Model the fold of this input.
Amino acid sequence: MAPASTNAILNIGRLNAFRLNYIEPGLRLVRDTTLRITLNDTPLKVRYDSLTIHDVINDSPNTCSLIVDRTTPPTVGQRLRITLGVDPAYLLFAGILQAARKTYVGKPAVLEWACEALDDTGRSDWLRPFGAWEGVSATTVAQQLIANFAPGFSAAGVQAGLPPVTLYLDGTERMNGALRLIAKLIGGYYYWEDYVLHLFTGSEAGGPVAITGAPGQLVDDPPITVTSDDSQIRTRCFGKGHSEATLTAVAAGETKLPIANAVMFNPFGGKAICEWQRLTYTGTAIGETGALVGPGVTPSTAPVAALAAGTGMDPGSHQYAYTWVTAAGETLPSPLATAVIVTGLEAGPPLYALNPQPNLPHYPQPAPGTTLEYAVTKQSMDGAYETARGPIMSGPALSGQYYYPSIMCTADMAGNRIILWRRDNGGAWGTLGSTPITAQPVGGVFSIPDTLATPTPRAEPANNFASGRVNVSGISVGPAGVVGRNLYRTPANGAQLKLLTNSLGATTTTYSDQYPDSVLLATTPPVADTSGLQMPAGQVLPGATAMPVSGTGWALPGGGWVVVGNGQQVIRYTGISGNTITGIPASGIGAIVAAVNYNSTVTGAPMLLGVTGIGTGIRQGAPVNIWVQVDDTAAQAALAARVGGSGIVEQLISDERRGEASLLALCQADLSRFAYPIVTVQYVCFDPATKSGKTIRVALPALSLDVTLMIQDVTIDSFHPKPRFTVTASSVRSSLEDVLRQLVGTLEEGF
Done:
């Protein structure tokens, strides 16, 4: 049988059964209260009664004051470390000796130095951080800040998976200013310890033992105190962020608000505030693109797109436009032409009206009382394509009158002909005549008179095709300087023009399109005229209600604001007609008040769209700020139940460096700290694990108290026989930075 000692050595689980790790109580007390103080790793002799450490979270560095005697003369800049205990050893302070005041005690031979030391906060501020982060985890931001702007420091204490933040640093803030912003955004805390950054939310592991009132746990003089404070409570937080100036005065009820730059505003809509008026908006327009004032050199006539026999194109609606190409560049695209490639037999167009007219003696007339039925078909000019008959209109044959059936012209009729059909008393269909559609305007009404006693018999058309081709014509050659034309087409039922061909040269005016959508190139028409073609001379006079421009692809179909030149005039328009912006007021806000010369630039103004809430006119230059509102409804209900009323207590945070996401995070963090009464507990204990940033549970039934708090401030002194920890713990971080921000908010509201 193996000896007992062998088992003890192999089975460390029974080690204490043999008292091999036993330490006498007296020795344990010595080990637990051993204080090690070093300067550049050299032991330092210090007066115990002079040693005080102040440990505070977030906004101020930890400090240490002590008196050193002549045996170990200190030098400013040396590294001071103070630990308590042996296995484990608690780090009470690590930092740099900032000041050493030399004097003597009694006589010059007995020297001493009164020293002050700061933790690593000051050294971490040597470099100013720069950078931008949008929606990035605070963990990543802090790690990058340490790596790039704090050489010699570590981010090992940064909590993983911290919430995302949006932060812009331009060198105004030092490292600790940046960390304060991050901590505020995430509702968290930070501190430095021995060159390591600790950044976290909630609490860190390794906190002190809970305060339960056990014998010897607390110092009774002074006794523990508990404070509950409602003075900073708020349950609704408004955020006022980045601002832009209005470009011009706007009237009450305006729905599009022109501002200097819309990039920082939410493109999907949000809230804004202009002076005292709180607004909502549904989107933004960035502006920036535009055209030249004047009729321009852009093609003004649309091409003609006529269906033709054959196969190859994808079924659906296709739109065509062309541009002029010069040695310098390319114009904006022409107006559009449309052709519809169909699958199966296409329905014919409807009749507009029958229109009875007085009969003339030489026209034969159907027998009175005959039921006459009319319909029309659309046919290509070459006869290769024809639709089915359209909807039927009917009427009785009238004595002394004949019918004059009419059709309303649509965009797809151009380049085709319309054929009129009739049948009598439900008999066979026949044709009565046809009309080519050449210069008939879209929306115009034209007629084909019924002058025959009997229509020409003909079977219903059957030459429609499943897919087809389009003959494009009317591609104008353009003025001198044009060396080629580009033809663009949309995919079937699409809206984006894409390049179909760039091989038309300077003179070809037609093109036979037989290609599927897959051959379209990714190139799209230009949004600005780069052709260099000469605009004619002229000007738009004050009071004009329309302005010709070289192209309107950049403009909003429902209207908006445009800027002439470098801001000389800001003009309101309500629509587009071809290459003209229309609906400009003749006078007042948004009118043309000074002549605008052709070739002047006109660009879309940055705008907030879908704006509601402008009850009073806004002056030019008035600031428009991003605005957010965050409510803690649970806290509102709790406050209302406790004190009555609505429970809504409002707070305003103003920070014009912030966009919407950052502002929302800031307001949410503020409510997470201040939506409920602040509970503060002050006590004195001997627990060496007591440290700012750690959490402490205080469970004292005698005080009806059971809360978990964050340790905010610790003062360590009276090191003999063991150090005493004077602690302030609270449910919220109360800092100088908070107080300053609140004071600034009060001052802003007072003006």
Remarks:
- DSSP finds eight helices and 50 strands in the chain.
- The first helix runs from residue 4 to 10.
- Residues 1-20, 735-751 have pLDDT under 50 and may be disordered.
